[in-house]
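User: Some background: our group keeps a shared notebook of sequences we're curious about, and every so often someone picks one and asks for a predicted structure to add to the entry. Today it's my turn. The entry only has the sequence so far, pasted here. Could you supply the structure so I can complete it?
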Amino acid sequence: MGENLLVLLGTFGPASVAVALVILGLLSQRLGAVTKTPPYYRWFYVAAGLVVSGVVFRLLTLGSGTGDLEMAYVLTFALGVSIGVAVAWKYWSWLFGERRG
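Assistant: Of course. Here's the predicted structure to add to the notebook entry:
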């Protein structure tokens, strides 16, 4: 019982990453509309979907001890965060260039 509660509470962290990715998607959509950038922001929503699916896989492991679902959790979470970082770098890297000037 106690271990299942910890796993359940442990899903709040990845869920908050998914929320952050959605917020970045919304901000990037507005930035892209102003700067006429191609709609790469949609990839933030794909990344958030992958992270949420990882959270679902993690919740499915509550009652069972299957290693396949735990591996699916790790892979989908890592892929979602990697996509999010790549798209954030594409959209927001101009901030680093402004710092030098």
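Suggested note for the entry: The mean pLDDT is 86. The helical segments are 2-10, 12-35, 42-60, 67-92, 94-100.
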